[in-house]
Amino acid sequence: MVAGTGSSLNLNGVSAWLDAPYHRFPVLDANMRQIGCAPSSGAASGARAAEVLEMLWPWSATKQQLTAWPLPNKTGVATAFDRRTEAPSPFRSSPTNVVGTVISLQGSGWANIRLTSAPTLKRGSAAVAIHYSTPNGDANLPKNTVMLAAKSPLAAHTRYTVTVKGQLQTKAGAKWTSFTRTWSFTTR
Predict the structure, then answer these.
(1) Domains in the chain and their CATH numbers?
(2) Are the CB atoms for 94 and 138 separated by under 8 Å?
(3) Fewest CB within 10 angstroms: 13, 77, 115, 117, which?
């Protein structure tokens, strides 16, 4: 549930869940059967408002899919993320509270993910300095997810390209399957 002051008729809570790195993963799971979000009824201007998100998963995952966030070719992506707005706070080793928008790659239907090289974020052909987290170094990340963020806010109205190379595993002890995922997004 997301609570706040004012009207919740725009369902801003969905955006808030997706903007919160650790909270977005259930919403983006490709095996989600049903998802519903509704505002509180009768919320008047200035009154307390709430949005409730209900999700239904199957007993077992049937789809295997890599889900990137921000979505490929998404426009209007935020340039920054304030780590203090998420609990637990991602990238705890960062000396600054504000980093670039948090980017994630989730292996829905896979049990484990590991990187075979450091992920990259580029502005044109220029590399951008990043923080990145894997399940091995961040106990709060799902075992099938990695995330990264630029060490400082991104430039406005700019296209960025992300590349993540790694391996996925269906269950502990199973054969690892290699992948390379590259996608782009544009900031607002």
Answers:
(1) 2-187 (2.60.40.1220)
(2) no
(3) 117
- Whether residue 70 has a cis bond before it, omega within 30° of 0: yes
pLDDT in tens, the chain (188 residues): 444 444 445 556 678 888 899 989 888 888 877 777 766 655 555 555 666 666 666 667 678 999 999 999 999 999 999 999 998 999 988 999 999 999 999 999 999 999 999 999 999 999 999 999 999 999 999 999 999 999 999 999 999 999 999 999 999 999 999 999 999 999 99
d(CA 169, CA 113): 6
